[in-house]
Amino acid sequence: MTTTTKPATPVAATPSRRPGAGGLALRQGRLEITQFLRSRESVVFTMGFPIIMILIFASIFHGTIGGGVKFTQYFITGMIASGLMTVSFQNLGIWIPVERDRGVLKRYRGTPMPKWVWFAGKVIMVVVIGIAETALLLAFAVALFDLDLPGTAAKWLTFGWVAVLGVTACTLGGIAISSLARTARSGSAVVTPVSLILQFISGVFFVFTDLPNWMQQVAALFPLKWMCQGLRAVFLPESFGAQEPGGSFELGRVALVLGLWCVIGVVLCLTTFRWTTKRDG
Hints:
281 residues, mainly alpha, 68% helix, single chain, 0% strand
């Protein structure tokens, strides 16, 4: 007697689940954040510098600057803008040349990973660290210097779009300026002086209208001045707008200039960014 056995039903192979585009970007972003946190110098300078500066300036300068506005209330707007520029423009402008010089970017370009994922990772890192830094700065200023936070949803909305446009412009600028550094060591020498000069002429360390007129005009060509002005509209009373160079906070012009710098940044990145050093060709 013969026994007939049914052939085994083939089991369909389960395809390996690969992360989608969003998943790849998030993984790259997590990697960038981890690398940033492992660099103690970057963490201390990026997160601690604005707080140290507020502590120093608040200990030196007292009283008001006009219209009943406390100096610390004015100064916090510049330090938030400066902190966002540091984590985006300065941080990227210094560290991308290091990665390029070490061959990290060259190896990355040779992988099947889409190139945009690398840029997305940088953006995610900037956004996360920027939010953390701003929250820490605000908490510190509220606890020690009685900072008055925005009292309306409209002001928080203004805070949001000014920060987003400003960080976008500075991030693109940091990626673009990274191509000027010929070696890893020269990245800091190229970016840091530019960053410091912009802070001094853009109303970060001083009341903007107290600066010479020619400095104000030069500062108006760059995003940091407009970030500071937009944030003053958030943290200072509306009446203070009359003391601005244009007689108001000019939020429409703030949005226009920052948006224009975003476009300029994209063009500069597309035309100047290099994956390899000049010696690699």
